[in-house]
Design brief:
alpha+beta, Rossmann fold, Bactericidal permeability-increasing protein, domain 1, ten-stranded antiparallel sheet, eight-stranded mixed sheet
Length: 906
């Protein structure tokens, strides 16, 4: 993969390989290098292939004789002289060896390297298949790159062990499954995208189609690919591998007379695999690359495609570090009020229906004792409205408006001495005139890392004028004085006298309601901002947050979360996670700000990058940063000027250089020395641009190794310790009503120091080191990256709180960490026609408002936390549309002509 920045994102891209997991579990399928001699286990071929029992898709030398294997993802093992190599195969539903099937070889990205055989299916093609396995009518093969310390861009190359083994694994699959040799498709993402170009060029006649995604390669390979159908994809917003990498390869193939195509996917970045592998025309093209299928130069990623999740849950979550006070979320009352509009749609309807225990009582009437029994009592009702409000004294008041509550008593028995009556159904209706409110005061608290609500008080009172008791439908009576009229009247009055008992039965439902609230009224995923700002294309932190404390006051509710981060390599996780205490949030109970506020502790960045250092993956070879000043670090002429001792190695000198971290990254308040350095290095007043905080690399290292010939081993030679402090400021860019992007700006100039030394055993004859030259090269590279990073502005999606979208309004770094504020966005309507628009709107609790007049080219904004119903009358016709909460709608004339309509905008 190509990194447009010198160091990759926030310098943390100085990381090469994922540390992989090696499970001890027995594989489902195993195949030896010589399959005729393989020991049999769970579908492996026997010594006599013609007599092999088949299972899980492992078949004899003739796949057409195989029994039907299990569909879905199957774990297998390929064996060669180097040992066992785990991989995965997807077997499509309905697979049968009676016909040949197309096969896809997928090459994963850098973050999925290892030996577990599972990670390759967690990102890229695997998650898309798992989302809709019936739609994927291909056999898919997922080999795994096992070289954890090699270069990223070349790990899948045709001349590497992993590249060669991927092809042998494909051959092994073709031995065990019925594959169509005329429909072999090669695809890969990121690091695998580079590998796809390389493997395609190595065996151009072997592939029926090639789909490189977010990749690139050597343009010299183009002439070998002129006869290979190629369709390359790249995300327009890719911050890690520039779209030009794919475009240059496609242009080179086309210039050589080939048929390569390139599609830029707008609205998405490096994770463009979500949109590519779920792009319906691609599957059709893979089946028939010579057919007439539209291959547009640009497509736009849909929200549904962007929501396709990684399958990280397939890899064990092994805790490595726990951070208390990691995240603080403040939810103001206006958000709780907005959420209340969603409650009727969020509450499970089954919660408002059920059965009540039989009621049995004794009563004394007209000098006689009677036993009353009300049997088979069921209820059903509707939730018409809700109110949520935080109150002082750590209280959360929730009021639910219940209407049309119907209680049915299936049978009633009245039994006395020589007197009895039996009735049929009785109907009790509550809240027909208007809703009846069930009110609860709850105390938020945390119990075993779960947000709970303790009931402090509850009330439900049925007004006398808002309920009705119907007499029983059928009746039998026996005994002196037992008339139907008398019994019917007595039962109705008896039920009315027991209104408090009905109220108590409704109140008995509160525990169930509270449990539903605990499930539904959850604080949204507060890791959204950090997930969007994580600077790497690999090793995105696997995190789980859990509530630590919760409290309410008269202006809102505050919840503090702890965070657990998983080890990069689960097999190397510590027995006990390391504990860190984050800075406590300064958010006071008297905070008057509206909306939702998220504060992420400053300790997160160093804690998460320490995980990469502990796993020895916080390193990157400079050759994996093409077209950058860092390539000077492997240029013999440049490095000999820096280290004159290199002259003794002669003209065959070769250099290798890695950038790595030895201490974790951090954002901190700059030291007095750093401020003095800025003041001394810049004109008067420039230091005023120095932000209150700076991004710091406390200890980075450039490690240089040498060898005197391609056959010799690399030997460590010298290293340069690099320290950097660069002032920065955070903000929010608002390109439209519905869009938000993080805006990170570097202020003033960075402070960079470099110290060099020869490593032990290098035995230099000339001890001179020009560390200043190294600093100059590093500074140029850092400038290139910092400027590109400022331009990237990653998109920040809305947080969805219930059915209420919350949109980022501010983003800044404060004393304790990163703070993001989200607000209720409202609804916007724009008139893009040439005539005035006259319309009305109504909300869920209001009548029609208006009429409003919207002049051409103007907009109206409604500051409401709910969707609006839009009504427009045109003569005798009436148009009704829903304007979703947080949306921007434009009233415009269709391109095809006709009367104006509403369209989603922004």
């Amino acid at each position: 993969m190509r990194f447009p920045s010198p160091l990759g994102r926030v310098a943390a891209l100085l990381l090469p390989a994922a540390i992989a997991c090696a499970w001890a579990a027995t594989p489902e399928g195993c195949v030896a290098a010589d399959s005729s001699r393989a020991a049999t286990q769970d579908g492996c071929v026997a010594a006599d292939p013609s007599r092999a029992a088949t299972q899980d898709g492992c078949v004899a030398a003739d796949p057409s004789r195989a029994a039907t294997p299990r569909a879905g993802f199957v774990s297998r093992v390929y064996r060669d002289d180097a040992g066992a190599h785990r991989y995965s195969v997807f077997v499509p539903e309905g697979y049968s060896a009676r016909r040949a099937w197309p096969v896809v070889l997928f090459l994963h990205g850098a973050g999925e390297r290892g030996t577990d055989g599972l990670r390759p299916t967690t990102v890229g093609l695997g998650p898309v298949i798992r989302r809709d396995p019936k739609a994927f009518g291909f056999i898919a093969v997922f080999p795994q790159c096992e070289n954890l310390r090699g270069r990223l861009l070349t790990s899948w190359n045709a001349d590497t062990h992993d590249g060669k083994r991927a092809l042998r694994i494909l051959k092994d699959v073709e031995t065990h499954y019925r594959v169509d040799p005329k429909r072999r498709i090669l695809t890969g993402w990121s690091m695998g995208g580079y590998g796809a170009w390389s493997l395609a060029a190595a065996r151009p006649g072997f592939w029926s189609a090639v789909v490189p995604v977010s990749g690139g390669g050597d343009a010299e390979l183009a002439k070998k690919l002129r006869d290979v159908p190629i369709w390359a994809f790249h995300g327009a917003e890719d911050r890690f591998v520039l779209p030009s990498e794919s475009r240059e390869m496609v242009e080179a193939v086309s210039a050589a007379g080939g048929t390569a195509r390139f599609t830029l996917v707008k609205g998405i970045g490096h994770d463009v695999w979500r949109a590519v592998y779920s792009h319906p025309p691609l599957l059709g093209w893979m089946r028939n690359p010579n057919g007439k299928i539209t291959r547009p130069a640009e497509i736009v990623a849909t929200e549904a495609q962007k929501s396709i999740a990684r399958n990280d849950d397939l890899v064990p979550f092994a805790p490595a570090v726990e951070i208390s006070h990691a995240v603080t979320v403040r939810v103001a009352n206006d958000v709780l009020k907005g959420l209340s509009y969603s409650v009727p749609q969020m509450v499970d309807k089954d919660l408002l229906s059920g059965k009540i225990a039989d009621i049995r009582e004794t009563t004394f009437t007209d000098g006689h004792t009677f036993n009353l029994s009300f049997l088979g009592i069921s209820y059903a009702g509707e939730l018409a409205d809700a109110r949520i409000e935080a109150l002082r004294g750590n209280r959360l008041r929730i009021r639910l408006a219940l209407r049309n509550i119907s209680l049915q008593i299936s049978k009633s028995h009245v039994i006395g001495t020589r007197r009895w009556a039996a009735t049929g159904p009785m109907q009790i209706t509550i809240g027909r005139q208007r809703p009846v409110w069930l009110s609860m005061d709850l105390q938020p608290h945390v119990e075993k890392r779960t947000l709970r609500f303790r009931t402090l008080s509850k009330s439900f009172e049925i007004p006398d004028d808002n309920w009705h008791v119907a007499p029983p439908v059928k009746m039998e009576v026996h005994g002196l004085g037992m008339t139907k009229a008398k019994v019917s009247k007595g039962l109705v009055s008896g039920v009315k006298e027991r209104k408090d008992r009905i109220e108590q039965e409704v109140l008995a439902l509160v525990p169930s309601v509270v449990k539903e609230i605990e499930k539904k009224l959850a604080v949204p995923d507060s890791m959204g901002p950090i997930a969007e700002l994580w600077p790497l294309p690999v090793y995105a932190p696997r995190m789980r947050i859990w509530p630590e404390s919760a409290a309410a006051d008269e202006r809102g509710m505050t919840v503090t979360f702890g965070l657990t981060a998983a080890a990069i390599d689960p097999s190397q996780a510590p027995k006990t996670p390391r504990h860190i205490t984050g800075s406590k949030s300064p958010l006071p109970a008297s905070d008057k700000r509206k909306g939702l506020r998220v504060e992420i502790a400053a300790e997160l960045l160093p804690a998460l990058t320490q995980l990469l250092i502990d796993a020895d993956v916080a390193r990157l070879h400079v050759l994996d940063i093409p077209s950058s000043p860092f390539l000077d670090f492997v240029d013999p002429a440049v490095m000999t000027a820096i280290l004159p001792d290199l002259k003794r190695f002669g003209s065959k000198l070769q250099l290798s250089a890695e950038l790595m971290f030895r201490k974790p990254l951090r954002v901190a308040r700059p030291s007095a020395a750093a401020l003095d350095a800025v003041a001394a290095a810049h004109p008067s007043g420039a230091a005023a641009n120095y932000a209150g905080h700076a991004f710091e690399i406390p200890e980075g290292v450039l490690a240089v190794s040498v060898r005197s010939s391609p056959e010799a081993n690399w030997k460590p030679y010298a290293e340069f310790t690099i320290r950097l402090s660069h002032p920065l400021a955070f903000g929010v860019r608002k390109p439209g009503f519905t869009r938000r992007a993080a805006d990170i700006q570097w202020r003033a100039e960075p402070t960079i120091t470099v110290k060099g030394r020869f490593v032990n055993g290098s035995e230099p004859a000339d001890l001179k080191i020009d560390a200043g030259r190294v600093r100059d090269i590093f500074a140029r590279g850092w400038k290139n990256w910092s400027e590109s990073f400022s331009r990237s502005k990653p998109r920040v999606p809305d947080l969805v709180f219930g059915n209420l979208p919350l949109r980022m309004e501010t983003l800044d770094w404060q004393t304790n960490g990163l703070a993001a504020a989200f607000a209720v966005p409202g609804v916007k309507l724009t008139n893009e026609t040439t005539a005035a628009l006259i319309y009305e709107v109504k909300g869920p609790r209001s009548t029609w408002g208006g009429p409003y007049t919207l002049e051409p080219g103007r907009s109206h904004e409604f500051a409401v936390p709910y969707s609006l119903v839009f009504r427009h009358r045109d003569g005798n016709q009436q148009e009704l549309f829903t304007l979703p909460a947080g949306s921007h709608s434009a009233y415009r004339t269709p391109r095809s002509g006709g009367p104006p309509l509403l369209y989603r905008s922004d």
